[in-house]
Amino acid sequence: MMGTCHCTRCRKSGASTFVFVQRESLNLTEGADAIVTYRPQAPYKYNRCFCRHCGTSLGEITSTSDAFPIAANCFDDPLAMTNRFHEFVKEKPDWYSICDEARQFPEHPHN
Length: 111
Hints:
This protein has 111 residues and is mainly β. The protein has one domain (2-104): Beta Complex (Metal Binding Protein, Guanine Nucleotide Exchange Factor, Chain A). 5% of the residues lie in helices and 30% in strands. The protein contains one helix and eight strands; from the N terminus they run βαβββββββ. It has one helix at residues 8-13; strands spanning 2-5, 17-22, 35-38, 48-51, 57-59, 67-71, 83-87, 103-104. The strands form two sheets. The chain has a five-stranded mixed sheet with strand order 6-2-1-7-8, with no helix packed on it. A three-stranded antiparallel sheet has the order 3-4-5, with no helix packed on it. The longest helix is centred in the N-terminal third of the chain and has 6 residues, at 8-13.
């Protein structure tokens, strides 16, 4: 599932559009030693990962959850999916226009 987060943290990390992956379907074959994890201070709770060599935002690739988001820009191959939702739309900057028909939520969809 693909979604876009408009919160200030995701926008600043360059990981606004993400894809949820299942832990058992992810096979990291190399480069684990280049992953750096940023652990935020409260009230934020989600770690952000990035490549120490090129700076690419990786989303939460080191998460131990059963499913977690990875930044969509990390995938080299085309993704056979489209954006399903926008979250934290209340934090979206005025200069950015949402140009798809995906559902919009002022915060997390479960809030």
